[in-house]
Amino acid sequence: MTAGTVFFTGGAGFIGMHVLPLLLDRGYRVRLFDNMSRGDRARVEELTATGQVELVEKDVRYGGAVREAVRGCSHVIHFATVSINKSTADPHESIDINMVGNNNVFAAAADEGVRRLVFASTASVYGDPSRLPMHEDDPLDPLTPYCISKRAGEDLLRFYERRQGLSWNALRFFNVYGPGQRIEAYYTSVINHFLDRLTNGLPPVIDGRGEQSMDFVHVTDLARAVVAALESERAGLPINIGTGIDTTIAQLAKILIDAVGAEVEPRFNPRDVLVSRRAADIRRAREVLGWEPAVSVREGMTALVDARLGR
C-alpha cells in the first residue's frame, strides 16, 4: 500500500527534483503538475517511466485543470511560482500566476479534503529584517510582487483552514543553492559570478566591504524539510528553513577561493552598498519538523565547485 498520492505543482524544477526521490522512497506516488517552462523534461521522463510519477503538463492559473488533477490526491506540495526577478519586471504576470494559482491550488485542496498541504513561501516576506536571527513571529514587510504573493498565500491558507479545516505548513525558504540550480537564479548569481572569475584566474570583485550576508541552505537539506512538513504532527504554521548562519559575501568569496584552490585575494570595489543581512531562527523547524540542516556552507559550496570543475 502506498503512503498516498502527492499533487506537486512546480515539482519539475530545481528543488522539486530533489524532493521527488525522497517522496518515492517513502512510498508516495506523485502527480506532477507543471507547465514545464523551467522543468527538467529529461529527468521527468525518467521518473514517469517508473510508473510512480505522472506528469500533468498544465498551468496553475486554470482552476478547472487544477481541481481535476487534485482529485484523488492525499497530499499537496505547492511550488509553482514566478521568480522574484520576473515579478518586478512583470508584476501583472506575477500576480496572475502566484495569487490566482495559489488560490486555485488551496481551494481545490480544501474541497478535496487532502491530509496536508505544504506551501513554498520565502524568507523575503520579512523584507529588510530589524533583527537577527529572523523569527517567524517577526513583522513582515514584503517588498516585491513575488514576496507579497507569498505573504498573501500564507494568509489564504489560514482562510481555508478556518473555513474548511485545511491542514498546511508554509516553509519560508532562505537562500537555497545546490546541484541542478539554474545559473541565473536570483541569490546564486553572486556564487556564479565569483566562480566565473575564479575559474578564469581572476579574483572575485566585491562591492563595498562584503558585509551583506545571506543564509545559504543546501537543497538536499531543504528537500528533507519539505517531506518532514508533509508528515509532521503539528500544522498551520509558517516555518523558517535555513541554517541560522549568516554568511557574508566576503566569507563566501573566501570559501569559493579555497574550494577552487586559487591563489588570489578578493578585490573590493569601494562604494556605498545597502548592507542587508539574513539569518534564520530555526528553532521552530527543530521543534515542529524534527529537522536540522546537515550540510555546512563550506561543504556544500566545495561540492558545487568540484562538480563544476569535474573533480
UniProtKB/TrEMBL annotation:
It comes from the Bacteria. SUPFAM superfamilies: NAD(P)-binding Rossmann-fold domains. Residues 8-242 form the NAD-dependent epimerase/dehydratase domain. Pfam families: Epimerase. Belongs to the NAD(P)-dependent epimerase/dehydratase family. This is UDP-glucose 4-epimerase.
